[in-house]
Write a structure and sequence with these properties.
Elements lengths: L2 H4 L3 E8 L6 H9 L17 E7 L2 E7 L10 H16 L2 E7 L5 H13 L3 E6 L6 H12 L6 E4 L8 H8 L20 H16 L8 E10 L3 E10 L2 H8 L4 H18 L2 E10 L7 H6 L4
Helix pairs in contact: 7-9
The chain binds guanosine-5'-triphosphate (GTP) and magnesium ion.
Guanosine-5'-triphosphate binds next to helix 2.
């Protein structure tokens, strides 16, 4: 390739797809260099599509993080999440399927074969490479390479930030040769209000046990901006009465910890002080209320 060909600018969109918990959101954040998409050890943390923009001298990569494929049960919430994945795959130039090193189960295979049928460039990112013994990597890559005609297979560690440049290099040729799609200082398509609700939801996912987070949603009721301070009024919705007391904790201590952690994330992201007030409310069966789920901003 000549020098001139090397410097043609490419820009486009890339969906990060895969089973829950493989590290899609951690990867988005690592690629962008900012924490935008919430992450946790629990599967099905991400509920909404969110874009993260990574700028390099020769390309602009607009990544779309998606919810993990929902297979567990049907609800208005799960349908909305699956619709989000569908929209993402239709909108983008490149599909990146994320799997975990050393694990390629039926859910992964199912996603890979579905994505191979879409007919777009398909790249496999083998994440959590830090978790596998190095001699096991090559046989694993050989095994997964049989599953579809991938355009590239790249081992990475989103957490340790390994292999990320190799991943970008593998994606770049499949992005259209065109100028940047977004201003260089743009980070995401989502509003500060959206990010505030999500940062709060992340703390609930990280703090609470295995059941409560799945019945929790967060909404921003008021978002008052001034140059030095944001005043944010947020609601935490739980779908069962007893969950309210769990979220609040003894003498409100749990809720205080959650709110403080969320506020610190917001201050870091927004670059100013944040005054955060949080209420907990019970809303029975909100996950099956399609009108309400729609109002949360999935599409
Ligand atoms: N060891 C290791 N852990 C990782 C890596 N990347 C992500 N994780 C961890 O894997 C867990 C899931 O990460 P997420 O980024 O939330 O996964 P996700 O695919 O977005 O999950 P859903 O939103 O639920 O679909 C978290 O505990 C991460 O810290 C990695 O490269 N190595
Ligand atoms: Mg996620």
């Amino acid at each position: 390739m000549t020098e001139a060909a090397n410097t043609v600018f490419h820009a486009g969109t890339i969906a990060l797809l895969g089973r829950p918990n493989v590290g899609k959101s951690t990867l988005l954040n690592a690629l962008v260099g900012t924490k935008l998409s919430i992450t946790s050890r629990k599967p099905q943390t991400t509920r909404y599509r969110i874009q993260g923009i990574a700028n390099r001298t020769d390309a602009q990569f607009v990544f779309v993080d998606t919810p993990g494929f929902q297979t567990r049960f049907r609800s208005a919430l799960n349908s909305a999440m699956n619709r989000g994945i569908q929209i993402a795959q239709e909108e983008v130039d490149v599909l990146v399927v994320v799997i975990e090193a050393g694990r390629f189960d039926t859910a992964d295979r199912d996603i890979v074969s579905r994505m191979a049928k879409v007919g777009k460039p398909l790249i496999l990112a083998v994440n959590k490479s830090d978790r596998i013994r190095p001699p096991e990597m090559l046989p694993f890559l050989r095994e997964v390479s049989q599953a579809a005609g991938f355009d590239a297979i790249v081992p990475i560690s989103a957490q340790k930030r390994k292999g990320l440049d190799a991943l970008l290099k593998a994606i770049r040729p499949y992005l259209p040769a065109q100028s940047a799609l977004h201003a260089e200082d743009a980070l995401t398509d989502r509003s500060e209000r959206f990010l505030a609700a999500e940062f709060l939801r992340e703390k609930l996912f990280r703090t609470l046990g295995d059941e409560v987070p799945y019945g929790v949603s967060t909404v921003i009721e008021k978002f008052e901006e001034s140059p030095r301070l944001y005043r944010i009024f947020a609601g935490i919705l739980v779908d069962k009465e007893p969950h309210k007391a769990i979220v609040i904790g003894k003498q409100g201590e749990q809720l205080k910890r959650i709110a403080t952690a969320a506020r610190l994330d917001m201050e870091r992201m927004f670059g100013r002080k944040v005054h955060l007030e949080v209420w907990v409310k019970v809303r029975h069966g909100w996950q099956d209320d399609s009108e309400f789920v729609k109002s949360l901003g999935y599409d």
